[in-house]
Design goal:
single chain, mainly beta, 5-stranded antiparallel sheet, two-stranded antiparallel sheet, globular
């Protein structure tokens, strides 16, 4: 099956989309590498784990995780 990614991510970064009971979409982003990774976001987001808003770029620490929702 053909899968269209929501946005491009660097090698070693995985993105999964989930829809909550509130019908809002959430993206779980995982960095599987031992280096910092930068992910360009297609829309402003809120990082629920870090508790902060992100305008355009998410910086993931080595083996970092983020849970994002659109703002």
């Amino acid at each position: 099956a053909l899968v269209n990614p929501v946005f491009d991510v660097p090698s070693g970064v995985e993105v999964g989309k989930r829809v909550g009971t509130d019908r809002k979409a959430y993206w779980i982003i995982l960095n599987h590498k031992l280096i910092e990774q930068v992910v360009s976001l297609p829309w402003p987001a809120h990082d629920f784990l870090a508790g902060k808003d992100i305008d355009d770029e998410l910086v993931l620490m080595p083996f970092g995780v983020a849970v994002l929702g659109k703002r």
